[in-house]
Amino acid sequence: MVDKNILIVDDDIGDRKLMRRHLSALYPTATILEAENGEQARSYADEEIEVVFLDYLLPGMSGLDLLSSFFRLWPQSVIFIMTGQGDEEIAKSAILSGAADYISKSAISSGALHRMIGNGLQVARMKWRIEEHQKELQQFSDVLVHDLRAPIRAIKFLSDQILEDFEAGDLNEVKREFDMMKRSVTKMSDLIERLASHINPHSEGAPECVSADSLLDSACLAVAQDIANSEAEIVADLGGLEVFCFPPDISQLLQNLIGNSLKYRSSAAPLIRVTAKPLSLGVQFSVSDNGIGVPEQYRRRIFEPFKRLQRSSDLPGTGLGLATCAKIAKRHNGDIWCDPDVSEGTTIHFTLKLRQNIEALSKSA
Questions:
Q1: Where are the domains of the chain?
Q2: What is the pLDDT of residue 150?
Q3: d(Cα 355, Cα 365) in Å, to the nearest integer?
């Protein structure tokens, strides 16, 4: 399903009109953009282009010459090459250059376009997921090497010290060193658990309808001791909503956000508000607090793996909590963002639109 922008790049106005007619009928929620050459196409650089139909012969250059620049502008777009007549060599060159497929203009029909786009998006999305997993595995190995090195060295050093002090009969020192070793082991365990949660945050089983209140209750239960220790107040206004989701994932998402509000508190006792409202295709949650806030320049980057605020570097954590939240929201066809208009504390919104995806699959079955 295409619900964003489709770009047609062709110097023939008649061919563009034909493509627009077919595509508008197939994907009524998508925005159809047109360009008659590469320069005009690049003027849409700020748009989120999902599908590109690119004419092979354009004034001044071929469509193949534009492919690399288009992929730089829209790295997750699916690009199809069109020609006035079939040519196996052109088809081969197009595929080798990164195009998802190739079609002769004489073969264009609604059915052909629907098949091309469906197959192209399916393959491309699989490729993007593989690339994403490869990047995450690389990050996983990097952080294991970097962050586990220190506690492992500490445990080795403490083991030698414990043996030395035990032989000297200094049991008080032995006890202190055992406590230090326990803290190092706890740090290692916490890091490994957070990495595992980020790499695979998905719960098993099927999505289901549950109450928003039950999701929040599960999240609060998991951090109950931290809530009590910080004397935090949790205020909820969830409107009795039912949420279609993978419940363990959303409880984990809420737990991470509440945990951050407790961790990045100000001098005042934490006050955390959790609200929810219905959307036409799902639900939006918001978690607000009266903590130290997030500087404007960090509000986008905090959802990237291993990104932490510079001023919070002395606090425990791996920088994976919000990245895991982003993955969970994405799994539910939703988004997550830090409210740019909040000047005191932090407000994070996330949407869940899993119902839309399930209904689309049901219609196509």
A1: 5-108, 131-199, 208-364
A2: 66
A3: 15
